[in-house]
Amino acid sequence: MERRITDGKPELSGKKPSAFRGVILATLSGIFYSLVSVIVKDMTYLHPGQIALYRFIAIFATSLPQTVRVGQNPFGPKKFRICLLVRGIFGGTNIFLNFLAIRYLSLSEATVIIFSSPVFVIVVARIFLKEPCSVSQCFAVVLTVTGIIFTTKLPSHLTQEHVVYTKERLCGLLAAIGSVLCTSFQIPIIRKMKSVHHAVMNFNFGLVTITETLILTAIFGNFRWHHCGIDAAYIVLLGVFSFVGLTMMLLALQCELAGPVSTVKAASDIGLAFLWQIVIFHEEPDSYSIIGSVLVVFSIVFIGFNKWCSLHSNASDLKNAECNS
C-alpha cells in the first residue's frame, strides 16, 4: 500500500474497491424490493397510492438520523438541488405506477415489464451521461421490446384464444410502461449525483415523494385505515424493506455504472417474482409470460455481460499503457 502526504497528514492511496461490491449491493436491493412487491400484492383493500405513501414516510423518517449525523445541508449541494427535486418527482411517480401495476397484473407480468428498464437506462445514460452504447445493446433493446410484447400477450390475437383486456388489466399495463419510463430517467439522475451522500438523497426523496403521493392518491384513489393485526406488521416491514432496498441501490450506483447496477437488480427481481407468484400466490405463469421473461432476462444478462467485458477491456488497456509509460 502506497502512502502519500496531503496537507501534512499521511494518506493511504491505491486502495481499490471490491469489483463485486456494486453487484452484491444491487442484488440485495432487488431481494428487498421483491419482498415489498409481495406486501403490495397482498394488501388488496388499500389503494396502491396509500401503500406507496407508507413507503415514502418510512424512507423519510429513517433518513433523518443519518442526515443529521453526516452534518451536510439536508437539501443537498446547490448545484444538485434541481436534480434532487426532479429525481424525487420521477421516483414518486415511478413507485405510484409500480404499485398500480403490481395490483392489477400478475406479479411476474408486472415485474418483467417494470424491470426491463435496464435496457432503456442504457439509452438514457448514453444521452445524458455519455456512457457507451454499442450496436449489440441496440439489439438488446429490440429483444426487450419483443419480450414486453409477449408479456402483454399481444401475440394471442394471432391465435384462436384471445386474451381479454379488462379495464384493470389495461390500467396495469399502462402503469407498468409508465414506471419503466420514470425509472429510465431516474437512475441516470442518481448516477449523476453520486457525490451526494445517500442519506441526503433519501431525505430529499422522501420529502418530495410524500407530497406528490398525497396529491396523486387524493385525486386517483382514496384513503382507508389499515386493519389491525398482521397488516400493521406488513406496513412496518414495507417501510424497513423499502429503506434498505433504496439505500443498497444508491450505494451500488455510487460505486458502479448505471447499466450494470440496474441489470443485476432487475435480474434478481424478475427471478424472485416468478418464485413468489408460484409459492405464495399459487399462480402458474402462462407461456406468454415465460417467453417474455426469458427474452427480457436474456437481454438484461447480455447487456450486463457486454458491459463487464467492456470495463474489463478498458482496465486492461489502461494497465498496459501504464506499464509502457
UniProtKB/TrEMBL annotation:
The reply to whether Ion transport figures as a keyword in the UniProt entry is no
Task: Read off the Gene3D superfamilies from this record.
Answer: 1.10.3730.20
**GO CC annotations on file:** membrane
Spell out the InterPro entries in the cross-references: EamA_dom, EmrE-like
Q: Is Glycosyltransferase set as a keyword in this record? A: no
**Subcellular localization, per the record?**
Membrane
- How the protein sits in the membrane? Multi-pass membrane protein
Name the residues that span the membrane.
Answer: 20-40, 52-70, 82-104, 110-128, 135-152, 172-190, 202-220, 232-252, 288-305
What are the EamA domain coordinates in residue numbering?
21-151, 172-304
Which terms are listed as keywords in the entry?
Membrane, Transmembrane, Transmembrane helix
UniProt superkingdom = Eukaryota
PANTHER family attached to this UniProt entry: ACYL-MALONYL CONDENSING ENZYME-RELATED, SOLUTE CARRIER FAMILY 35 MEMBER G1
Protein name, please? Answer: Solute carrier family 35 member G1
UniProt lineage? Eukaryota, Metazoa, Ecdysozoa, Arthropoda, Chelicerata
